[in-house]
């Protein structure tokens, strides 16, 4: 049943009990905030419909999680840009002069699992909702960065993934096999072969050990077919340069 809203904006289900937070499958563009707290993290890719586990221990990002739990449980995952040929990690400890520049596109994740530890840190899982375009930063809030965002250009992210994706699945998996062999990596091939296309094209880009720019190219792909082709090219290029110590999980 399609949810309806009361005058205060609460989502009211058919049994009359209000929900402050709509079910993920019922979310529309109207449910996304104009401003969101940012979690800049290089080489960390969250895609719509994907799940990203995070270990949250820095005080400012503990504050971000606490605030998100009160405000729709949404966090903006975004990558710092490369600068002078290097990826600049977001370790400025709240100094706006040291905050690295960010890519213009990120992904909104909703906290769908959380563990609070005795030391006050969190283990959370974000479920990807929709990509967003960063319009401008709006300063700091309790140490973390806040930005004005626009989700309207990514409305398709809220729909179910395409059932049939036009791409060369066998060639993609063969590229992955060569990449893993050259890099000395292992993976669960039987599980991969059993995945439907939509799941495969969300899971593989998120776990493959690519650099920040390559992860961003996958995030900004316009369709699943485009993402599949980008992923295959990245696998084929990266397969020639072994990177010891990194492996898909």
Describe the structure.
The chain has 249 residues and is α+β, with helices and mostly antiparallel strands. Helix content is 27%, strand content 27%. The chain has 6 helices and 11 strands. Residues 85-89, 91-97 and 242-249 have low confidence and may be disordered.
Describe the secondary structure blueprint for this structure.
Blueprint: E1 4-5, E2 11-12, E3 18-19, E4 35-40, E5 51-56, H1 59-70, E6 74-78, E7 82-83, E8 86-87, E9 105-116, E10 122-141, E11 144-150, H2 169-183, H3 189-194, H4 197-207, H5 212-219, H6 224-238
Parallel strand pairs: 4-6
Antiparallel strand pairs: 1-2, 2-3, 4-11, 5-10, 6-9, 7-8, 9-10, 10-11
Summarize the structure.
The chain has helices at residues 59-70, 169-183, 189-194, 197-207, 212-219, 224-238, and strands at 4-5, 11-12, 18-19, 35-40, 51-56, 74-78, 82-83, 86-87, 105-116, 122-141, 144-150. With 249 residues, it is α+β, with helices and mostly antiparallel strands.
